[in-house]
Amino acid sequence: MYKEFKTLNLPQIDQEILAFWDAQKIFDRSVEERPVENSYVFYEGPPSANGMPGIHHVMARTIKDIFCRYHTMAGQRVERKGGWDTHGLPIELSVEKELGITRDDIGKTISVAEYNRLCRETVMRYKDLWDDITRKMGYWVDLENPYITYTNDYIETCWWLLKRLFDKGLLYKGYTIQPFSPAAGTGLSSHELNQPGAYRDITDTSAVAQFRIKGAENEYFLAWTTTPWTLPSNTALAVGKHITYVKVRTFNRYTQEPVTVILAKDRMGAYFTEPKPGLKPEEVKAGNKPVPYLEIVEEISGAQLEGMEYEQLMPYVQPDGPAFRVLLGDFVSTEDGTGIVHIAPTFGADDFRVAKQYGIAALLVKDENGHPMPLVDRQGRFVKEVTDFAGRYVKDYGQEEERPVDVDIVIKLKEENKLFLSEKYLHPYPHCWRTEKPVLYYPLDSWFIRASALKERMFELNQTINWKPASTGEGRFGKWLENLQDWNLSRSRFWGTPLPIWRTKDGRQDKCIGSVAMLKEEIEKANAALGLAQVVPQDLHRPFIDEVVLVSDAGEPMHREPDLIDVWFDSGAMPYAQWHYPFENQDKFRQNYPADFIAKKGWTKPGAGSIPSMLSL
């Protein structure tokens, strides 16, 4: 009954078994000979074929195969549709590296069309090797009819899903502070900062800056920051309403000048030792240790400090509105720092929120197109208006320089009697999980999915998932859901699914396109109203889709919002888009939704669970 082997030649046995499987169509039969009504639904988390397969892929696929074969042997029908993940930053960065260009060159030295053509070619470069190792390892999956995320059909389903969200009021545009990767040139979503290794311990130069109180002589607020590069953008200080603050007479350790400084009483021990009424200036020496002080002049509540004004710390750019005042912030604590938080509205979510609440202006300049922008550009460099540090990178992006810009800012403050203390500070800092370079919190005009509106429902659904290991669902993913923020969907890139939203110039009217048929209908309306001769592009990617002009109900031209969507929306759309649902295969989709088994390395992305739950609202 069983073949006898005199010697054990494993490679030969492999070849014989593979040949038998091919000749007898064993995989096909293992599916077709089992009833549809007894299915075990498997979702393949697809690889990207722009890189070589590795041993970790073999290990992951072995685990997938074990589950699928077990249920096949138990008599269930286990269809296994393969797929290719073809959009996103890894492909773009690979092409840029090969061409020796950066994101800024795209559209200048190379057209967007040519760039995207190269991305399309690159993404399937190693498909033959992937197919070969898939067969050799005996991984059963349908390689003949895979879903491919760059196809028009897949994109159309993504558009349909986005239109559903748009119609439910779950898709909106907002101007907020978001994680931004200068190295990648695009915003990131909160779940990307939730990736393992996104936060890395780095040593920064911290600064306790002296903000001179307006109308007082040698009196200062002390505010601590681990990002001195944000100090040129300061327009406010925040204190805690119920925190007790003290006025302390002492000397500046760098200049020996007499100063009276205000900080939280609970933070005295971090900066001062004992009172010494006869203290001499030379006894307060530079260094990182606490120093003596002359006396505590007064105790004040945070509420009493509200509204006080101070002089601008680094006057490179003037605000267009009220600024340089003390505000009350519910985020202020005495766990570290001075109990006073420096506020730069362009570089922090809390900063932005409290400044907006009080009507405090941000410091902005005009870009080359006349649009307002922060004092740091999207490459992570100071703008020319910050004259002392113009063109300098604010974080480590691989540049060669004598000292980090933070150090030079601290030196400048020290020379101007505006620095109370500086020391090295080890702390976790977010990095882009693709480029491994530091992230900035940056003001972005982005499109968001209102995920927070369905936080409770998604948390409930997460409890029904049998996570392996359980700690993933209960811990990292569960905690992320508990603190869920709206999903920043926008990506300022070139190779990916275009955001299907067209807007009038004033932003008052917009249309979300949910299908190719709807696009065709809207193009015909625009052609009639605007005297154009447009057709639906054969390729729905940029730049072709960017050229399509639609028309509003009032007869105004509408242009597509230039962003792409987060590539993880592509991944989360797979249950629908792999079948080009709802435009085709409606019965097939119903037979294969929801999944019994999802397996993917790091499948802790919102798409797989959140898109279906949002659509069921």
Descriptive notes:
By secondary structure, the chain is of the alpha+beta class. It has a domain at about 205-360 and about 400-430: Alpha-Beta Complex (Isoleucyl-tRNA Synthetase, domain 2), CATH 3.90.740. The chain is built from 18 helices and 27 strands. The longest helix is centred in the first third of the chain and has 19 residues, at about 55-75.
Report a brief summary of the structure:
With 617 residues, the protein is of the alpha+beta class. A hairpin with a 6-residue loop joins β6 and β7.
CATH class descriptor name of the domain at 205-361 and 402-430: Alpha Beta
The CATH topology of the domain at 205-361 and 402-430 is Isoleucyl-tRNA Synthetase, domain 2
Helix proportion? 25-40%
Radius of gyration: 29 Å
CATH architecture of the domain at 205-361 and 402-430: Alpha-Beta Complex
CATH superfamily of the domain at 205-361 and 402-430: Valyl/Leucyl/Isoleucyl-tRNA synthetase, editing domain
How much of the residues is beta strand, in percent? 15-25%
Count the E strands: 27
Average pLDDT over all residues? 92
- Which stretches of 5+ consecutive residues score pLDDT under 50? 602-609
Main sheet? Answer: 6 strands, mixed
User: How many helices in DSSP terms?
Assistant: 18
Structural class: alpha+beta
Shape, per Cα inertia axes: globular
Distance between the termini: 57 Å
For the largest beta sheet, what order do the strands appear in spatially? 13-9-10-7-6-18
